[in-house]
Amino acid sequence: MCVSSVECELSFSVQNRLKVKYRSSLKPERLDILLKISMLGPDIQHFDPVPAVTRWRRVKKSRTERLKEDYKPRKKAKTC
């Protein structure tokens, strides 16, 4: 049985690559997801983004759509 720290070192390397200066505020849950994708996912050359983008567009509501749903017009004031 061979004990090695290669996988641990690889995960720290991937984490350091993901948590650069501009993404230092990543929440642990999001970082965990990105680590799993980076380490266990397919190579970028073999990844087809179309299904993921299609699903994201179907699930994600735009900000304007959410604002329209929340918008309730004011009642008109009664004039005498």
Describe it for me?
The chain has 80 residues and is mainly α. The chain has one domain. It contains four helices and no strands. The radius of gyration is 22 Å and the shape is elongated.
Brief descriptors of the model:
mainly alpha, single chain, 80 residues
The whole-number mean of residue pLDDT values reads: 79
Percent of residues in helices? 55-70%
Gross morphology: elongated
From the N-terminal CA to the C-terminal CA, the straight-line distance is 91 Å
- In terms of structural class, how would the helical and strand content be classed? mainly alpha
| Radius of gyration (Å) | 22 Å
Query: How do the SSEs run, as a string of H and E?
Result: HHHH
The proportion of strand residues reads under 5%
Question: What is the total tally of β strands?
Answer: 0
The quaternary structure here is: single chain
Main beta sheet, described? Answer: none
Low-confidence stretches: none
- Output the number of helix runs: 4
Total of domains: 1
